[in-house]
Amino acid sequence: MNNVWRNVGYPLCVMIIGGLIIRFINPFVSNDIITILVAATCFAFGISLHFGKRSNGWIQKFVVAIFFIFFIFWDLGYVVLPQLKYFFDVIGINGFVIRLFYVFCGWSFFK
Q1: Angle at CA 97, nearest 5°, toward 91 and 98?
Q2: Residue by residue, what is the 3-state secondary structure of the chain?
């Protein structure tokens, strides 16, 4: 039973609690804060999907954190590189794929 809770219940609770927090805070804060909260929720969901031994390597965590922060700034519109935007448009990286990347960053943070 404990293994089922860890494999299914914990990620489910992260999704439900994160969704409720974003829903209740949404009318009171700006869209930038909501974007950051969505990214943090996706990152936390990704962390909850990782099972097994967690890595303590700081270089990997630093690289993941840099990519995570870059994509948050990209999602907020603070970083606009025309060539990179064109490349992302060609290969189809948009809001949904960026959110999937947040989940991947969370999953790979302790990998």
Answers
A1: 110
A2: CHHHHHHHHHHHHHHHHHHHHHHHHCCCCCHHHHHHHHHHHHHHHHHHHCCCCCCCCHHHHHHHHHHHHHHHHHHHCCCCCHHHHHHHHHHCCCHHHHHHHHHHHHHHHCC
Beta-carbon contacts of 64 under 8 Å, excluding residues fewer than 6 positions away, are 105, 108, 109
Cα angle for residues 72, 20, 71 (degrees, 5° grid): 5
pLDDT tens-digit series, residues 11-46: 888 899 999 999 999 999 999 999 999 999 999 999
pTM recorded for the entire structure: 0.86
**What are the tens digits of pLDDT across the range 48-99?**
888 777 778 889 999 999 999 999 998 898 988 889 888 888 888 878 888 9
Residue with tokens 């999907």: 49
